[in-house]
Amino acid sequence: MGPNDTEIVRVFARSTASPSADPTLDPKEAAQIVVEAEAGDAVFRMGVPYEVDVTVKDLVDGTNIPTTPAGAVTGQLSQAPWNKQHSAFVFGVAASELEKHKGHQCEVYATVYMGLQEPDASFATSPRFLVQR
């Protein structure tokens, strides 16, 4: 990654109580989607605008699983919540939403979009995970 880039380091799903990725999620408990991203030194110091967005896809029925916040997290680099060059963004998934997808394989698609004049984008896909039956 160069000084003028942003890049997704990794994206994963986890139970709310877990610090690391979980290959299975309990539909009786809320879950989280975590996007770890890094900004190059130059764009970070300039405070360039950015957007971080996720889509949680049920691979069995093709539907999307809603997250909170809904839609993209926006801001400027070097300001909260992206106030360190390496930052993590957490999106919540309600247990009531997971309940609708029991026994299904899912995947997360994450996007970081940065800049105005010459925008840059980074894309990542999470490891697949299973919503328990």
UniProtKB/TrEMBL annotation:
This is Uncharacterized protein. It comes from the Bacteria.
